[in-house]
Specification:
- It is built from three helices and no strands.
- By secondary structure, it is mainly α.
- The protein has one domain: IscX-like (Arc Repressor Mutant, subunit A), CATH 1.10.10.600.
- The chain is globular.
Length: 68
């Protein structure tokens, strides 16, 4: 099983799209996004290493995944 780190923004976005299919990623708050990333089964990184830039990159990738 692979482990997700904060730098794996595309893989995180794909996992979030699968686990939160009912959520519009354009409306998510970063606090919820952070919590959901940390709760992913494969996520294994320090929760304090995230920042707004990383969360924004995850959100943008999630939006793109949804549009594909």
């Amino acid at each position: 099983m692979f482990e997700l780190k904060w730098t794996d923004v595309l893989d995180i976005a794909i996992e979030l799209d699968e686990s939160h299919a009912d959520v519009d990623p354009r409306t998510i708050r970063f606090t919820d996004l952070h919590r959901w990333v940390c709760a992913l089964e494969n996520f294994n990184d320090n929760p304090e290493r995230s920042n707004e830039k990383i969360l924004e990159a995850i959100q943008m990738n999630w939006i793109e995944e949804r549009e594909d």
